[in-house]
Amino acid sequence: MRFLDRLVLSDRQVVAVPDGRWETDQKTGMWSFRGMARFACVVREAPERELTFAFVPDDPTSLLSFTASWDEVPILDRPERPSPEGSVLRIPARLATPGLHTLRVDRVGAADPPDLHEQLDNRFRELSYTVDSRRYRFKIEEVDRERYIGMLAARSVTGLGPRKMTGCVFEGPRAATATIDLEAAGTMSFLLENNSTAPARFSLAVGDASASRVLAPKEVRPMQLAVAAGEQEMRLEAAGVGGGLFLWGAPRIAPARPSDATPIILVTLDTTRRDVLSPYGGPAEASPRLEAFARRATVYDNAWAASPWTLPSHASIFTGLYPSRHGAGVWEDHLTADHATVATLLNDNGFLTAGFAGGYLSSAVWGVARGFQTYRDPEGFETRGDRLIDAVGKLLKRHHPRELFLFVNLFDPHALYRAPAEFEERFSVAARRARIERLPVWSELVAGSDDAFRQLIVGDAELTPDGLEYLRAAYLAEVAFMDHQLGRLFDMLDGYGLLDPALVIVVADHGELLGEGGFLSHCCRLDPELVEAPLIIKWPFQTEGRRSTRLVSHVDLFATMLAAAGLQVIPRDGLALAPEDSSGPTDRSVVFMEEHESRVHPLFENMTVAPHLYGLQQLAWREVVWEGGGSCAVGAPGSWQEAACVVDWATRLAELGELAKLPSDRGVASHQGALSEEERRNLEALGYVR
Length: 690
Description:
This protein has a 9-stranded mixed sheet, with helices on both faces. Strands 3, 4, 6, 9, 11 and 12 form a 6-stranded antiparallel sheet that branches. The protein contains 16 helices and 36 strands. By secondary structure, the chain is α+β, with helices and mostly antiparallel strands.
């Protein structure tokens, strides 16, 4: 059913949609963006003449300079100022081929008059596009509707609430038919969503079988239909109000016969240090459920994160590529469709793919949901672990096939640390809180102030001994709460008979600084506390615990999951792990890690070593290098000691070659524009920006 994914059926020949970086003002009727913005363009039928986009700026914006590109191909020879009466970008017809395209507009601040450098907002009174003489004006009152389509086209999933789905969207009432050829009988299923202001009827027919149901406005409901094997016609129809959007979400055909497939379960522990977990010597009361799980799994003692923050680490896990190769959080502000993800490949091979994101930086807007039939975004910038696992339980109650790829991102250890009272009691958090609740800044922190935590991160307030003791205890309480939710997930999987046959991977995306070196949070550095990753893998039907000293990385998990599912492993940066090599010698001598300043990941000045850092990790040796310097250490996880580097930084960067190329050296545009207001609010809440 992959032919239905990301499909937009419309009367429009070209469906163009402004992305989330465009902001709107209902009072003034203005469109605006900061830095750069895009339009997702779904070309359904190639135009005969050039495709044009028109922009009418306000007066100050007419003095600013912009460039534009179509699928990264420049369409302006040099930066230009828009005419006060309106300017037109022209896309040659030969470039407007059927499929998804991206029009990108960039502000070029260096070409602006000096007195306008501080003007961040680029404002336009009107935006429109024209296809073969038919003009479409973007309407502010329809922006949510347009973005619903745009999310599906550009990020592969869409939906009205936290639950996002891939699939096919009808723009307005219509019917569509296709011929399908099924190797075996099974059950066809959809999650239907009626994004309109009136009831809508969805009707499905496959061969002689049919089903129909009516959905209220904004309602989501499942539909299932038993289908026979063989070639037959499928017909989808949505009858409802004109201008409505009707989503045939999460299309899937489940085989009627039992399967012996290996379920793939991937759990990322956000912001979780290795040394706080009991399988790695941490306090027993912080992770009793993970400790019990480890007794029937393989604990990896030399696993390393690809990055010290969420987006590039998850992108590396999903693609098997180091950050400088996939680009997410380096020069791209999202994971692009350039590289197939593990979810995409498993979906292509009949797996039910479902994702549950606990934190904002693993939500669908960042591109990590590609390949997932259903993907649950966090509520705002965070969903607490108990509510997240409740949602997983609802999915498993409806669907628990052996062909399952389940991704769960537990976010609780991320600041601010506010675990439920019963978990705080394990670490005497209340007593430690009482010692600091009258201190400047610290009193605001314990009252729940995000700004107070940012002051501590950037060095505007002192890290006192009592304050650090409180933070460490509160962090451990969050780890314990997360561990409890992890145990609930294990119990659910076991109850549906999925735990024993499954490949279960539990891994942190990165760690956390809790006062080491005078720093908090996770940013700007490649210190061991940030990139030593706990990794515990239960192989199918494994019952005895093991430990492995093999050198492994996030990038190995992509190949490992594909191999466990019986699929061909695509050669990338990682290696496929296997149970039989858990105690054997490593077949590589080094893994890499990176940290880069980017638009969505500005570095804090007090913590910054350099804008671009590269780490080389061996079993007993580690190096961090940057343009102008480097540092080295000898030892093992938990006991690294500074040592003299044997190779100078310039030689090492040259040896790194392609990995250490900056975006400008790769011939790609770096997305360094200013943050949108929505992005800034969410990132401020997480402590990432001031």
